Amino acid sequence: MRVLIAEDDPLIAAGLEERLRSLGHEPTGSAVDGRQAVELARTDTPDLYLFDIEMPKLDGLQAAAQLAEEGLRRPVVVVTGIDDPKLIERSITTGVSAYLTKPVDSRELQAALELAAARHAEFQALEAEVERAQQALEDRKLVERAKGLLMSALDLSEQDAFRRLQLTARERNLRLADVAARIVEQQRLLEPKRDPS
User: Fold this and answer.
1) What value, to the nearest 5°, has the Cα angle with vertex 107 and ends 95 and 50?
2) Are the C-beta atoms of 69 and 114 separated by less than 8 Å?
3) What is the DSSP track for 54-114?
4) 65, 67, 96, 114, 132 from 121: Cα distances, Å
5) Rounded CA gap, 6 and 40, in Å?
6) Is 47 helix (H, G, I), strand (E, B) or coil?
7) CB 49 within 8 A of CB 77
8) CA 195 to CA 197: how far, in whole Å?
9) What is the rounded CA–CA span in Å between residue 168 and residue 164?
10) Does the predicted model carry a pTM greater than 0.85?
11) Is 13 helix (H, G, I), strand (E, B) or coil?
């Protein structure tokens, strides 16, 4: 994995880089504060963020939140020298996948990286599932609207209007929702002509 480190203590940063390499990962850079971490993530997108929480200018949790808002969400492992339940709570609400306290040993680090990557993959799968469900709902609404338009314009039963949509979709090799969208777009053609007098 390509890992971006943000740690304001140069000795700890160097130690984390060395540990990452020994575990077979590639450190992509080392930021000294949260702002620099955001800049580095924008220019060379890593697979995972390894951020110290307490840093000047922008802390690790703020940096992770900003990156997520910018569409650069990645698994986040935070490291801190402070054992504070409030920080753990804040980490959870920020979407942090793993939390380590200093000093960090290699086994803990590897476990945290794997856990963070797995949690992130699960989250992405859930997001995709929600997106598919929302799209299916929108498609269903569109089909219902098109069906209603056909029923009223052509004096069809609900069943006949739906069959007509299905048949058109099959004949044109389109999705049912695509046929429905075209009907809705062209609904003025289906409206009965009014007598101009």
Assistant:
1) 35
2) no
3) S-SSS-HHHHHHHHHHTT----EEEEES---HHHHHHHHHHT-SEEEESSPPHHHHHHHHH
4) 18, 17, 13, 11, 17
5) 10
6) coil
7) yes
8) 6
9) 6
10) no
11) helix
Report pLDDT digits (tens) over 58-111: 889 899 999 989 989 899 998 888 777 787 777 777 778 888 888 888 999 999
Whether 28 and 56 have beta carbons less than 8 Å apart is answered as no
Confidence of residue 191 (pLDDT cuts 50, 70, 90): low
Residues 6+ positions from 147 with CB-CB distance below 8 Å: 158, 161, 162, 165, 180
CB 42 within 8 A of CB 28: no
Backbone angles phi, psi at 31, to 5 degrees: -95, 150
Q: Which helix (H) or strand (E) holds 27?
A: strand 26-31
